[in-house]
Amino acid sequence: MPSADPGRSRPRRLLAAALTAAVIATAAAAPASATDSVFAPVPPHNPYAGPDGTATMHGDTGSSDTTPLPGPGTGTLTSKRVALASACPTVLVGSDGYPVALCTPIFGQVPTVHLPDPGDGSSIAELALTKGSLLGAVYAYIDQDDRLVVVDGSRSLLRIGHHRDADDDWTLTVDQVLPLTAAIPESDAVTGLSPDWQGRVWFATGNGLVGTADDRTGTVHTLQLPNGEKVANSISTAPQGTLVTTTQATYLLTADADGTPRISWRQPYDRGSARKPGQLSWGSGSTPTFFGPGDGTDYVAIVDNADNADNAVKLQVYETSTGRRVCSTPVLLAGGAGSENSPIGAGRSVFVASTYGYPYPAVPDGAGDSVPASADFTGGLTRVIVRADGSGCDLVWDNTLRSAAVPKLSLADGKLYTVLRDPLIPGTSGTSLLDPYRYAEIDPDTGKVTRSSRVGIGSLYDTLQMAGTAAPGGVYYQGTVTGVLRITAK
Asked: pTM for the whole thing?
């Protein structure tokens, strides 16, 4: 099918870019503390993606896990559980203000796209996709025309739009299809995807095949990474190239003029001796993060899977242009030594959340047994800052907050947002089906909770280390194992 007219999306792109620029300018003008709390800049806006902060699970195509939008206001916090009988890891919002949720039903596990009503979060349209692997059709993004871009279980690249039908009801439709079956073996499946600055869609499969797909021309080009390297998380894009972290190394890839992928640099990391409890693969649990004080993409951050004598995993920071290791800094010292979450990166700061011991109900095929077989969920949150001269990194604070979701950092109000999983018995670190869950706002300078509100008790409210999304109007969406929480303030 012909590509969309780029002129239609120009006003939306300009609006999104202007909003991001204004927020960054405000943040940059703020006085810096001893720990340099200027959380700017962030990765530049991708012209082939929706608004920064809401276009991808991790906010932007650089996976900074930041947002230019504020969270709920200062009024009384309220929450509503939108029951969808599905785990909903991905809630995105286009420039038109309409959220799009990608969910996997508890029964049947057929990925389903929902269009929530911006006013109350109820689903006003839905579309079932072809079923694939456990992590298939989890990572997706919103494009410049407010369409959800995803690869389904049939190994087809889809652009899904939302439209009003003849009866003025909302409907979700597949507006564009590009089969990837000739490039991706039937035994493999796409794990992550993200657009580059030329409008191509980069993808990475579970078995380490990376490629570019151009649904304007129908061309697909691939590169197989070394045998045995798996991709269990999403990928990130910036003007310099595409980041892919496998179960053994992190890569920066670029593309030839025809779209053929090329390796710019490769940095191996310590993957430890086995998968840890609270992780979904044997290796880093990070979607790699672009961040930095220059243009927002100076550095790359991941968390390794080391299990060395000091019982600490390490934050690995690399220089984007060369792959040079800037630092290898122990993190999550007070909490559990393992993370399945993408780090937050903004300015010179990186925030890392522990998932060690988190009780996932299922892991992907081939993930292997965890060692030990299980562990308590101690929690843990760490802030690290890269030195101004780039000579290394320093730990700012470290705690045992039990974040049960991927935290987000708001550039608008300077707060970290997440959901905490409190133990049923205070003072313990075990988990149960009756644990209470609490929406929380955290001071990024101190790591302390400044405001919180209980959202529910029990497994219906389990946020399962899924990412939250700040939406326009002070609404915070958080996926759970049974639907979506809609958190606001009155």
From this structure: 0.91
